[in-house]
Structures are given as structure tokens and as C-alpha cells.
Amino acid sequence: MALSAVKTWGAETLTFADLNAEFNNIYNNPMSLISPCTATLNLNGQTLSNAIYTHTVQTFTANDATPSVASGTIFKTANTAATTITMLDGGSDGQIVWIIINDVNTIFDFTGTNLRGNASADWSPTTGDSLQAVFINPLWYCRISKNV
Length: 148
Hints:
Blueprint: H1 16-28, E1 41-43, E2 46-48, E3 57-59, E4 74-76, E5 83-85, E6 96-100, E7 106-108, E8 115-116, E9 130-136, E10 139-145
Parallel strand pairs: 3-4, 4-6, 5-7, 8-10
Antiparallel strand pairs: 1-2, 6-9, 9-10
């Protein structure tokens, strides 16, 4: 939703009422100035890029060894056959993701991939376990949690 002008201006004289209406339009709709955010913002040394305002749980495509995390922060698995995850595609530097294990078919490959964690040993989680990871290009630094 972008902010629209109250009035289209031409050669006419600007009146106080018109100016106040434009000011009130901006004042009363501040989020429409940046939402949806399609640019990278510099916030005093911190970068906001491709902002995600809600944390909707998304389900990975079943049996995908390199699922995309480009569109969110919280994911769950739904593998119907043995699936070894070797990479999380679409990560942005500094992005943090949570992955909830929702099947018994998922394996994370921590040997010879861009996934780092679990003392470099592959991990076969069970339903209810979770993984948190942060992306520092080109690596994902992962912390596993055996919750069951």
C-alpha cells in the first residue's frame, strides 16, 4: 500500500487547507511510506533488507534437499521419504531461521556442506526437535535442539 497524494497539483496556488490535508495524510499513514518495504534500509549501521513483518510458519517442500528460506524465518519439515538437507537456499547475510522437525525422514548433512554444527556430524532428528541457524555467506551456522 503506497501513500497517495490527496490532490494532484498543477499551477494553482497552494492553500493552507491543501497543505494541512497533505501533511495529515502523511502523519496519519506513516507505515504506507515504507510498507511494503522493497528497498534496503540503513538503520544506523544495521541493515533492514527484504523486511518480513510477521513470522508465519511455512512448510518446506517435501523431499527437497535444499529448501528455500528466502521468504520467511520459521519453517517446518514435511518429508515423506528419507531426505538429507545439504543447504538452505535463498539466505541473506545475518538471516536467522528456525526449523521445526515435523517428520522422521529428515537428516541434516554437517559433513562437507555449507551447514556447520553438531560437531560436524550428520544429525537425524526426530519429530519435535528443532534447528536454529544464522547465515553468514556462504555458511549456515546451526544449533540443534533435541526437544523430545
